[in-house]
Design a protein that fits this description.
This protein is an alpha+beta fold and 257 residues long. It has helices at 3-6, 9-20, 68-78, 125-144, 161-176, 182-193, and strands at residues 29-34, 40-46, 49-55, 88-92, 102-106, 202-204, 213-215, 223-226, 233-235. It has two domains: 3-106, Phosphorylase Kinase, domain 1, CATH 3.30.200.20; 125-159 and 198-250, Alpha-Beta Complex (Aminoglycoside 3'-phosphotransferase, Chain: A, domain 2), CATH 3.90.1200. Helix 5 (161-176) packs antiparallel against helix 6 (182-193). Residues 244-250 have low confidence and may be disordered.
Length: 257
């Protein structure tokens, strides 16, 4: 898949130039950097600089999934607080331009760490411990933000959040299954039976983990930006501690689990 499949430059360029008031965006190139069944992420390059465009997949998507307007709303609200998120440049809400709503944000440079540490970065145990501490500290900073004070008081329904999460993921599984899986069905039943009691009400990222952050390339461990907010809402902050890919064997070697 190329940029032309989901974000044609001839369409995005003039739109972005008009929305930002910067004519140099009109002459741009679009490069897909992340695709598949997840949201599509593109690097947009022009004489005006570089930016990142996010849109849903081009195929069939499940209801409530891949919500770019929700993602851009929470990023835009958090920006003025100093919390590390990219600046939103423009949002296309109607879906009429490329078939789905999308938004464009600034490109934050740094390291996105998945399976391995970049060469020469965080080579000592102390530096890797710093990454873990700052990752936790950044999440705590998010949970300390008062949603109502930044216009997100109606962003979600905190009461009953955990119960709704279990129901929603059960429905998503039912809509996605291609064959019977009694083990997953049993897991869903167990989760429903053991939903924890409601605690605090905060902004919840919904998929908080190391590879959804950009780390500063020079200040080891500093979170330059938190990405991928499509599942964010108001709910129980404990939900951000049980995101997927939390096991040690999904972390770079030497990083505390």
């Amino acid at each position: 898949m190329s940029g032309e499949d989901g974000a044609p430059a001839a369409v995005v360029g003039p739109w972005l130039a008009e929305r930002t008031g910067e004519p140099a965006w009109k002459d741009l190139t679009v490069e897909l950097i992340s695709g598949g069944k997840s949201n599509l992420t593109y690097i947009v390059s022009s004489p005006a600089g570089e930016a990142v465009l996010r849109r849903p997949p081009t195929g069939h998507i499940l209801p409530t999934a891949h919500d770019m307007i929700r993602e851009s709303t929470v990023i835009g609200a958090l920006g003025p607080t100093g919390f590390p998120v990219p600046a939103i440049l423009a949002v296309e809400e109607t879906g009429s331009l490329v078939g789905q709503p999308f938004y464009v944000m600034e490109r934050v440079l740094g390291h996105i760490i998945r399976a391995e540490m970049p060469a020469g970065y965080a080579e000592t145990p102390a530096e890797r411990h710093t990454i873990a501490e700052r990752l936790i500290g950044t999440l705590a900073d998010l949970h300390a933000v008062d949603p109502a004070s930044i216009g997100l008081g109606e962003f979600g329904r905190p009461t009953g959040y955990m119960e709704r999460q279990v129901r929603r993921w059960t429905k998503q599984w039912d809509a996605s299954r291609t064959q019977p899986s009694p083990e997953l069905d049993a897991l869903g039943a167990d989760l429903i039976a053991q939903v924890p009691a409601h605690s605090d009400e905060t902004i919840v990222h919904g998929d908080y983990r190391l590879d959804n952050t950009v780390l500063d390339a020079h200040d080891v461990g500093r979170v330059a930006a938190v990405l991928d907010w499509e599942m964010s809402t108001l709910g129980d902050p404990l939900a951000d501690l049980i995101a997927p890919a939390r096991r040690e064997d999904h972390l770079p070697e030497g990083l505390p689990g």
